[in-house]
Design a protein that fits this description.
320 residues; alpha/beta; Rossmann fold; DNA polymerase, domain 1; 7-stranded mixed β-sheet; 7 strands; 45% helix; binds S-adenosylmethionine
Length: 320
């Protein structure tokens, strides 16, 4: 059975992206197609046929989303396996030049987090994998067993922001001498022991697992490269929204949008966070933040100009 994925901030995403009549959406993180379904339903409610160009690195998610979208909205979606860094190629392959709106809903989906065989969860025993694209490498096991103690500490400290990074890295290196790590639970227990057990509501392995997931999937590097790529696909007067879930990815999006506004090709809209009843219904939404920009209408039909602006060092976040 496929796990349910509740799209985070769905109402807000649709409000800011304005599906309107016949709207074309680039969904850079298609997942199980929750937001894209919402988009197509909204365009249908307006009495028109919308379109989605959807991309995901995870073939399992893509397969599920494609079947769901095709069943509910036949002929309205074009899906591609790959990273949102390839947004332009995906949009062109769908036979269009640009889109009215673009969405990136970052992080992992429930499909990935809840399936113990994918190795994302520290709560259940499973292979230590954590790859969004199973064809990529290294797996989390390869990373944990093959990295130096200094590299482990660096990743756990930078991407997990764990104050116990040094002790955790040391414990991993000592423990893997007995036998290489292959199982999520064994790693979670090792991390929990090294960090002195549970203190608050959070499991003590939360930060280390987040760090490993970010590292093996190169999440922050892809985000840095993907933001200007996705922005390039949005028509003048269109909108681009990103849902972030932790400080590190949010800082990258915030900087890119701020620098893009300063470069003069877009304006920022107010950020949104989930209301308390959404957090109650869907606890995974609690750390979500929705950031949105609107590209300037003057750029309509002048994608080349937008490309130049997006690619400029200022727009890439070179200045503070
Ligand atoms: C939070 S889920 C998206 C859920 C989706 N909005 C929905 O409503 O079903 C994030 C998805 O982004 C995908 N993903 C992560 N990094 C990606 C990247 N660089 N390019 C494309 N997809 C990516 C993951 O595989 C995952 O399926």
């Amino acid at each position: 059975m496929v796990a349910a994925h509740v799209p985070v901030l769905l109402v807000d995403v649709l409000e800011v992206l304005r599906p309107g009549s016949g709207g074309r959406l680039f969904d850079g993180t298609l997942g199980l197609g929750g937001h894209s379904s919402g988009w197509l339903a909204a365009t249908a409610a307006a009495g028109t046929t919308g379109m989605v160009v959807g991309v995901d690195r995870d073939p399992q998610a893509l397969h599920t989303a494609e079947a769901r979208l095709e069943a509910a909205f036949p002929g309205c979606s074009n899906v591609y396996r790959g990273s949102y860094e390839e947004a332009t190629a995906a949009v062109r392959a769908a036979g269009i030049r640009d889109v009215d709106a673009a969405l990136m809903d970052l992080g992992a989906s429930s499909l990935q987090l809840d399936d113990r065989e994918r190795g994302f969860s520290f709560r259940a025993s499973g292979p230590l994998d954590m790859l969004m694209d199973p064809a990529s490498s290294p797996t989390a096991a390869e990373f944990v067993n093959g990295s130096s103690e200094a590299d482990l500490e660096d990743v756990i400290s930078r991407y997990g922001e764990d104050p116990h990074a040094r002790r955790i890295a040391r414990a991993i290196v000592v423990e893997r001498r007995r036998a290489p790590f292959t199982d999520t639970l064994r790693l979670a227990e090792c991390v929990a022991r090294a960090s002195g057990g549970r203190r608050g509501r959070r499991h003590p392995a939360t930060r280390t697992f987040q760090a490993l997931r970010i590292a093996v999937n190169d999440e922050l590097g892809r985000l840095e490269r993907g933001l200007p790529e996705v922005a390039r696909c949005v028509r003048g007067g269109g909108r681009m929204a990103v849902v972030t879930f932790h400080r590190l990815e949010d800082a990258i999006v915030k900087r890119f949008f701020r620098d893009s506004e300063r470069a003069g090709w877009c304006r920022r809209l107010p950020d949104r966070t989930p209301a308390s009843d959404e957090v109650r219904r869907n606890p995974r939404s609690r750390s979500a933040r929705l950031r949105t920009i609107e590209t300037l209408p003057a750029l309509d039909g002048s994608q080349r100009e937008l490309e130049t602006r997006v690619a400029s060092p200022v727009a890439r976040g070179g200045t503070a």
